[in-house]
Amino acid sequence: MRNNSATDMEYKDYYKILNVARDATQDQIKQAYRKAARKCHPDVSKDAHAEAKFKEIGEAYEVLKDPEKRAAYDKFGAHWQEGQHFDPPPNWDAGFEFKGSGAYENDPGGFSDFFESLFGHAQAGGRQQAHAFRMKGEDHHAKIVIPLADAFRGARQTITLSRPSVDGDGRVSTSPHTLHVLIPKGIIEGQRVRLEGQGLPGYGGSPPGDLYLEIAFQEDRLFHAEKRDIHLTLPVTPWEAALGASLTVPTLDGQVQLKIPPGSQGGKKLRLKGKGLCSANHQGDQIVTLQIVAPEPTTDEQRRLYRAMAEQMPFNPRAGLER
Amino acid sequence: MTQQHVYIQGTILNEETRCSLADLCALCGVSTEIINEMIDEGIITPEGPSIREWCFTAVAIKRVQTTMRLQRDLRINLPGCALALDLLEELEELRHLSRRR
Predict the structure, then answer these.
(1) Is A179 on the interface with B (CB under 8 A)?
(2) Where are the alpha helices (DSSP H) in chain A?
(3) C-alpha torsion A58→A81→A10→A64, nearest 10
(4) A81-114 residue pLDDT tens
(5) What distance lies between CA A149 and its chain's CA centroid?
(6) Smallest Cα–Cα separation from B10: which of A46, A139, A129, A49?
(7) Neighboring chain B residues of A184 at a CB cutoff of 8 Å
(8) Which residues does chain A have with pLDDT short of 70?
(9) Residue A267: CB partners within 8 Å, gap ≥ 6?
(10) ipTM of predicted assembly, 2 dp
(11) Is A193 exposed, middle or buried (0-12, 13-18, 19+ CB in 10 A)?
């Protein structure tokens, strides 16, 4: 989440953000914006910062597509660096008419402090000055990454999102908003939790929108989830696989004993019922895949044992490869 | 000192979720005409024998919401959205598979 602090404002290089030259034509700017918007759109991009990037290019386009705003912005010259500390010089906008000039079409969530200090506040509702009407607030979509154990048991999560709020004049400002949320037991990757009324504020006394939290899982050292099933690769010795064994196996529910049947091969899958991600009506299992690991012989005695096996158990594992 | 927080319990949108046409319209802020156009385009498919008994899954809710955003932000028309959604779904599966390699 971006930290918007008025005392620490950074210069934004809108040309760099859209990846266009400072003397680009309006058509080139439009094409660059459309290309970047497709690439960075939060529904398309997997980049964790896609949402912020998408906002940034929207903001850059808002300025550069408008010849008057672009001319005013260009007055700062080309020597500024992206991210450099910035204070607009007094009366820098003399001769330009755009402050408070109404709605900005791209972004209901407010632009950066840099933008707002130059061009004024975006109006709440963006498009069509919607604050004059009664209109439900927009829904907000966010992704949260949780450990598998939280999905297995259910959990409490505290999350902080940057959320725009609207003041009496319809001005939008962004502030961090902390929420305490119950993560339901048995939620799986890609599913969402809808928090009613926790989205963007409404206009004209209408209710706020909703917040949708999409669940993603943290990488786990041992387990990975496929839908409701939890997969684990279990290394076993050749004799455990051949003779059968009762082994201690980790699950999201703690350690359990798993019986390996005699004559098991590598790749064999064993199912621990109910040890996956279970919801009220759907069961998930843990799937254990055996991986046979042969010890490296380090003494003469151990090499003798392998040779004895070779002599007493003639076996061609590559029979299936013959053509 | 421990602070007591109020934890919000949301509505889970999972494979058990079913909503009516009216619910879907309210959730996504769209009219029934728009939903009908999306059904015609194959973006979503209702379950149930008649309009009165139509119900929609959590996946349908998400597809309608994503379609609205793609139309608004990228000016993609409905057939384009249908194609983008299918490709995005396939891409998601492939990304999931490649993570396991």
Answers:
(1) yes
(2) 14-18, 26-40, 50-64, 67-74, 113-119, 148-153, 238-243, 300-312
(3) -30
(4) 666 666 666 666 655 555 443 344 444 456 777 7
(5) 19
(6) A139
(7) 9, 12
(8) 1-8, 77-110, 120-133, 164-174
(9) A289, A290, A291
(10) 0.88
(11) buried
- With beta carbons under 8 A apart, name residues in chain B contacting A181: 7-8, 10
pLDDT for res A49: 81
Contact B72, A43 (CB under 8 A): no
Residue whose structure tokens are 């829904």: A139
Token digits of residue A10: 């950074």
Contacts of A41 in chain B (CB under 8 A): 69-70, 73-74
Backbone angles phi, psi at A72, to 5 degrees: -65, -45
**CA B58, B62, B67: angle at the middle one, nearest 5?**
150
Look at A181 and B16 and tell me if their CB atoms are within 8 Å. no
Q: C-alpha B57: how far from its chain's center?
A: 8
- B58 in helix, strand or coil? helix
Residue linked to tokens 């058509």 = A27
Report the 3 state secondary structure along B2-48. Answer: CCCCCCEECEEECCCCCECHHHHHHHHCCCHHHHHHHHHCCCCCCEC
Which residue among A46, A182, A213 sits closest to B95, beta carbon to beta carbon? A46
3-state class of A136 per DSSP?
A: coil
What is residue A135's predicted lDDT score, i.e. its pLDDT? 75
Strands A245-251 and A254-260, by their bridges, are: antiparallel
B84 to A44: CB separation less than 8 angstroms, yes or no? yes
Query: For residue B13, what are the contacts with CB-CB under 8 A and spacing of at least 6?
Result: A191, A192, A193, A194, A212, B58, B61, B62
The residue with tokens 């049947």 is A261
Classify burial at A139, counting beta carbons within 10 Å of its beta carbon; exposed 0-12, middle 13-18, buried 19 or more: buried
CA pair distance A182, A188, nearest whole angstrom: 14
The confidence score (pLDDT) of residue A138 equals 84
Distance from CA of B7 to the nearest CA of A (A): 5
Helix count and strand count (H, E) for chain A: 8, 11
